TrEMBL record:
GO terms for cellular component: endoplasmic reticulum membrane; lipid droplet; mitochondrial outer membrane. It comes from Thanatephorus cucumeris (strain AG1-IB / isolate 7/3/14). Its EC number is 1.1.1.270. GO terms for molecular function: 3-beta-hydroxysteroid 3-dehydrogenase (NADP+) activity. One of its GO terms (biological process) is lipid metabolic process. This is 3-keto steroid reductase. Residues 137-162 are annotated as: Disordered.
Length: 214
């Protein structure tokens, strides 16, 4: 559907996490994470691999659909307030501020500030994002066009020199939020795993569709 819309630069955003690391991924023998000891972290890393694989596959089809990984950094919510209570909730926020004071750039703390990565990547022109393709993750900064980028069509093949990144909400010590860029860890070692995850998800969907005659 996105590939046939009248506008260019269609994109799908995959919300991942700072905790999404290859060390938590149990392997394809448990890709549904039934027995995984760190299922949340593993699921977020799988999301990054799937996003990268789909982005490459769309590139090979030479259409303008992009799949981009984003994360909110570390933000406090009241999701556990009922279990932790008022005091522990306030201590959690205090710990977040202390981490930022000690130099962490990954603590936007408030949900409004943490949303900057998703909003930015959803709305900004792809030409001003650090590229996931030819330009890699070298010296480009968020909000600045990669060297050599044009304002033309984004429907170019990215598979030749693909270096995927994820976009995250970051902040300075004073709490001013901005969008940071980090490489997807272990991408080269898990490149084929991402494609296999996509293939297995497609098979599951097709089986579900056939069973329930959707």
């Amino acid at each position: 559907m996105l590939a046939h819309n009248p506008f260019s630069s269609s994109r799908v955003l995959w919300t991942t996490s700072l905790e999404g690391r290859p060390s938590f991924f149990p392997g394809m023998e448990d890709y549904q994470l039934v027995s995984a000891s760190h299922a949340y972290e593993a699921s977020k890393y799988e999301s990054e691999l799937v996003a990268c694989a789909l982005d490459e596959l769309e590139s090979e089809r030479n259409n303008g659909v992009r799949h981009l990984a984003v994360h909110p950094g570390v933000a406090g919510t009241n999701i556990f307030l009922e279990h932790t209570g008022w005091l522990l909730d306030k201590l959690m926020f205090l710990a977040f501020y202390l981490a930022r004071l000690l130099g962490s750039k990954h603590h936007p703390i408030h949900a409004y500030n943490a949303a900057i990565s998703v909003v930015h990547v959803a709305l900004v022109s792809l030409t001003v994002l650090p590229s996931l393709s030819n330009f890699g993750v070298t010296r480009e900064k968020s909000g600045q066009p990669p060297e050599g980028a044009s304002n033309g069509s984004t429907k170019t093949n990215r598979a030749g020199d693909y270096s995927p990144v994820r976009y995250g909400a970051e902040t300075n010590i004073f709490g001013t939020e901005y969008v940071g860029v980090q490489p997807v860890e272990g991408y080269e070692e898990h490149k084929e795993v991402g494609r296999e995850l996509v293939a297995r998800c497609n098979r599951l969907y097709n089986a579900f569709e056939k069973k329930f005659k959707m």
